TrEMBL record:
Functional note: Part of an ABC transporter complex. Responsible for energy coupling to the transport system. Probably part of an ABC transporter complex. Responsible for energy coupling to the transport system.
Name used for this protein in its record: ABC transporter ATP-binding protein
Family of this protein: Belongs to the ABC transporter superfamily.
Record-linked Pfam families: ABC_tran
Source organism of the structure: Clostridium frigoris
Length: 284
């Protein structure tokens, strides 16, 4: 039986200017999964995330964490945000201390931990994101990609059960995007539930266990990467693109150049293995 660590029930949210951002969102996030939210700008992804950890309070409906409805008093919200951390799209909006060590230690110090435990957590968080050697460096001297990793360490130091990333690879080159994705995988292997929003359909397809598609503040569809990106009607209506790997595979299969029983590839390596597999190619 699946264990849902985070849920929303009939979640709706309207901003003060009257903008209806979310309408009856019902999602169930399984513990330990890698989940992507996809959709165009304005579809509601960031608003959902801000409701996840209580930064925003639903206009209607509720957020459920580990089976309990989120309460909006100070004590409950502090506990919630310790367990559900958000890494924002722009690290400049999250970082405010002079040095890397000061920045990452801030959250742990607010937990009233001993100095020894604070140091242990900060060192561990910085090592997890590959920034330990920069711990004494001034934050404003870091590159954009390094600031992204420090922002992740900010959250890791709290020992969260869920980390939510809003457009984590935006403005990053391919090298630094791969580094960030590896951090996601390492965190997930430690049992942390990783949730992200992304416009990168290649990332969502190759990386995710489960995908939720938002359109105009509502859930258009949810399912496995294959289910989502094999749905041509959904892709058209939600202004998405089919991942290149899947598109190539479907073209080869429809033309009879690979066996129709071949497993659908999720990444380049799997696609190459299908193409190079003895007996799979028919006059390719």
């Amino acid at each position: 039986m699946s264990e849902y660590i985070l849920e929303t029930r009939n979640l709706s949210y309207k901003y003060q200017d009257g903008t209806k951002a979310l309408n009856n969102i019902n999602v169930k996030i399984e513990k330990g999964k890698k989940v992507s939210f996809v959709g165009v700008n304005g579809s509601g992804k960031s608003t959902v995330f801000l409701n996840f950890n209580g930064i925003l309070k639903p206009t209607k409906g509720s957020v459920i964490y580990k089976g309990n409805e989120v309460k909006y008093n100070q004590k409950s919200l502090l506990e919630l945000r310790k367990n559900i951390g958000i890494v924002f799209q722009d690290p400049e909006n999250q970082l405010f201390s002079a040095s890397v060590y000061q920045e990452v230690s801030f959250g742990a110090m607010n937990l009233k931990l001993s100095e020894t435990e604070v140091r242990r957590r900060v060192d561990a968080a910085l090592m997890d994101v590959g920034m330990y050697e920069y711990k004494d460096k001034a934050v404003h001297f870091l590159s954009y990609g390094q600031k992204k990793r420090v922002a992740i360490a900010d959250i890791l130091v709290m020992n969260p059960e869920i980390i939510v990333f809003d457009e984590p690879t935006s403005s990053l080159d391919p090298k630094h995007s791969k580094q960030i994705v590896k951090i996601f995988d390492d965190l997930n292997q430690k049992g942390i539930t990783v949730i992200l929003s992304t416009h990168d359909v290649e990332l969502a397809y190759a990386w995710s266990d489960y995908i939720i598609v938002l359109k105009d503040g509502e859930i258009a569809r949810e399912g496995t990467p294959q289910e989502i990106f094999s749905d041509d009607k959904l892709i058209h209506e939600c202004y998405l693109e089919k991942p290149f790997i899947l598109e190539v595979f479907e073209k080869l299969r429809s033309s009879g150049k690979i066996d129709s029983s071949s497993a659908v590839p999720r990444n380049k390596q799997e696609l190459f293995e299908i193409i190079n597999s003895k007996g799979e190619i028919n006059n390719c």
